[in-house]
């Protein structure tokens, strides 16, 4: 009888430790997210499942063109691409991104730009027209979806405070046929 009780206690401890470890990993390190909508097409499809690396910005800084997940003003989490870092001047003209006066390539948009026949993929704007400032404020990011015509992003909701960023994401794990690292 004592052996059964001891074995039960060992299994219970192992199960509790496993559950606590899984919860800690999910809460502090990695979390799953489902892409909801078309705002990141063609890079990400609706219902793609991804892993968010929550540790990525605790130990490092965001980099331009990272794909991030953040808390949006509507009490939802959004997934978008970092376009502007603190202190950057952002401008779009002739379907070209300019950061601090320098034109930037956006290779992730090339295939999509070729399909658009009725105007630019990204309407022209300056950061000042959007947020009333010439540069991205300190501690904030300017983000945009890859599906520029149908994305609710910093052009609509303003810059994103760094404390609202959950982390960086780049791994699609579902559907299985689409498993890959995205850039």
TrEMBL record:
Task: State the source organism's domain of life.
Answer: Bacteria
User: One GO CC annotation, please?
Assistant: plasma membrane
Q: Which UniProt keywords apply?
A: Hydrolase, Protease
Gene3D superfamilies from the UniProt entry = Umud Fragment, subunit A
How is the protein disposed in the membrane?
A: Single-pass type II membrane protein
Matching InterPro entries: LexA/Signal_pep-like_sf (IPR036286), Pept_S26A_signal_pept_1 (IPR000223), Pept_S26A_signal_pept_1_CS (IPR019758), Pept_S26A_signal_pept_1_Lys-AS (IPR019757), Pept_S26A_signal_pept_1_Ser-AS (IPR019756), Peptidase_S26 (IPR019533)
Q: What class of enzyme is it?
A: hydrolase
Q: Where found in the cell?
A: Cell membrane; Membrane
What the entry lists under CDD domains is as follows: S26_SPase_I (cd06530)
Q: Which Pfam families match?
A: Peptidase_S26
The active site lies at 39, 80
EC number, UniProt record: 3.4.21.89
Q: What are the recorded Gene Ontology BP terms?
A: signal peptide processing
The catalytic activity, as recorded, is: Cleavage of hydrophobic, N-terminal signal or leader sequences from secreted and periplasmic proteins
Q: Which residues form the Peptidase S26 domain?
A: 9-174
A molecular-function term among this protein's GO annotations: serine-type endopeptidase activity
- Please classify the protein's predominant subcellular localization into one broad category: membrane
Indicate the family of this protein: Belongs to the peptidase S26 family.
Indicate what this protein is called per its UniProt record: Signal peptidase I
The source organism is Bacillus methanolicus PB1
